[in-house]
Amino acid sequence: MKEFPSPRESVLSLFKNMARMFDGEAFPHVDALYQFVFTDIENGFPVHIRFAKGSAEYGEGLNERPSVVITTTSDVWLDIAGRFRSPGWALLTRKVRVKGDMRLLRLLPRLLTRTIKLPRPQRAPGSKDRPFKALVFIGNPRKKNGLTGFFLSPFVEGMKKAGAEVEEVHLYDKKINHCLGCFACWTRTPGVCVHKDDQKELLEKMEGADLIVYATGYGSMNGWAARLISQDVADKVGRCWGLGSGTTKDPGPYEGELRNMWKPTQQQNLWFHGGNLHQSRHYSLYLALQLKARFEGLDTSVYKLAPSYHQG
Length: 312
Hints:
Blueprint: H1 7-21, E1 31-38, E2 45-52, E3 55-60, E4 68-72, H2 74-81, H3 87-92, E5 97-100, H4 102-111, E6 133-138, H5 147-161, E7 165-170, H6 199-207, E8 211-215, H7 221-228, H8 231-237, H9 277-295
Helix pairs in contact: 1-2, 7-8
């Protein structure tokens, strides 16, 4: 298992990316040197970064003539860089102290706006070189005007910015008939349904996708898994939500954390995301980090996979 980087290594990695993200074309005349001192590393770890003549350079140590000096701890600044914390909060609580021109601190986010192209994921030998394909099924009849579209939009835009090819399919516009239970797709025409609807088109799209997102809207997540995938998968995963508190709608045993939400489930590569606005904003980041780690091949430890006590 890979070891986590030290605070010192994390800070240097951050400054390396800050230098790469400097938009020198938009700010060719900026000449400013930012001196940082991280008080929690080696009794004060100094790092500086200079933006001048359309380029950026960073290095360790104290500079004699900084434009602004920012004193903080590594965890606070990494949280601000990752948008876990607000710079305003850090200043008000004195987690970040600034000596010099405060306007330069407000300018910093604007300087770091150059898009970094991510490398394409490695494909299996012999496969065509193509962008990562994501297929998004939207089940809300209100389309982009509903809450489902509201929650989904930042996720889709993030995938596009990362270089993915995203196709959105509004199921409300498609003709999809209910299963007759005739088993013709098992016996007479294996893999082919007797219905002449839009199912064939959707199945072809699914076969060519690297990622499939079911934006189902509100409802029983376990029920959606049964309808969209299979009852076997729904039974394997078990209930979503609830802690096992032993009440009418939340049967025991007590599990200590929410069932199957924003974490690995008993069905490999099946993840659940949902909740209200606050939960979606907060926990979507942790889910995304887990997916990104797996996508990049990083070893991620899981305390344990929660057992499935309940079906449906």
